[in-house]
Amino acid sequence: MKQPVNEQGELIDELTLRLQEIEIKLATASLQSKHVVAQSIVKTHIIAGMSLALLPAPLFDIAALTGTQLNMLRSLSLNYEVSFDEQTGRAVLTSLISGSLPVLTVIGLSSIAKIIPGIGTMGGGLSMTVLSGAVIYATGQVFIRHFETGGTFQNFEGKHWQAFFKQQLEEGRAFVKKKTDPTTTNP
């Protein structure tokens, strides 16, 4: 028995609507999955960056911080399927961080403080550790947000992200301090 054309049209419309709903749910699940993976990438690089910052070699820690951030950007770009090249990665990092002169100053002073035997090495290492973790956290959050809104390295504008970077830097400091505080339980 043949269904009337009207009923078939309604059935097709209903199926099309359901397919669209399923596509939206799948796209949302995919984005959520990418977000979870991205946060894991950032946390992994925070640990690596903080570990490298403990090394008592002045200025090496700054190079290690840059290398860790570039590696994180490479991993995030793979996760979000955004093309990456190291030269552009360096340029976007510079444009993002250069707008935060106090951060650059503290990074430099913390690194140079390691030259002073004993207290300088320890104090510089500890402050550089927290700051490295916070900078990596903030950089990661900026690029997660940028990529999730359809951004690429080619259309990244550091000036546009300065306020968010500074906000995330504070969150990053709190995150790192919480994770490194021996009196709290860290999952």
TrEMBL record:
InterPro entries: DUF697. Residues 5-32 form a coiled coil. It is a multi-pass membrane protein. The chain crosses the membrane at residues 46-70, 91-113, 119-138. It is found in: Membrane. It holds the Pfam family DUF697. The keyword DNA-binding does not apply. This is GTPase. Keywords: Coiled coil, Membrane, Transmembrane, Transmembrane helix. Its main location: membrane. It comes from the Bacteria. GO terms for cellular component: membrane.
